[in-house]
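Protocol step 4 of 6: structure prediction from sequence.
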Amino acid sequence: MESEMVVVKNPRQIIVEVAYATPASQVIFIAEVDDNATVEEAISASGILEEYPEIDLSVNKVGIFSKLTKLDKPLAHKDRVEIYRKLIADPKAVRKKRAAEGKKMKKGE
């Protein structure tokens, strides 16, 4: 997989990705923001909230490269902001149920 070259026009700005996954697909929006921008500002600048109105930043958790973070966290160039959906099923409860049923989990499930 080749990396895409992104040129920043303003040296006081950075490029970040904003990722969101639905059950059917994953999308990544690119945002150019001020170098002191926060997670929330990057999400707003990306346009993802207009495309996916079900995202509610007061409910959905967010992270940077799979680590939970707060909306006011400052970003660095090439960070990937991730917006997480609420889990439908508790993974621990699912494993417990499978064990009770005598089913073995396959690798990767």
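Step 5 (inspection) to follow. DSSP finds three helices and five strands in the chain.
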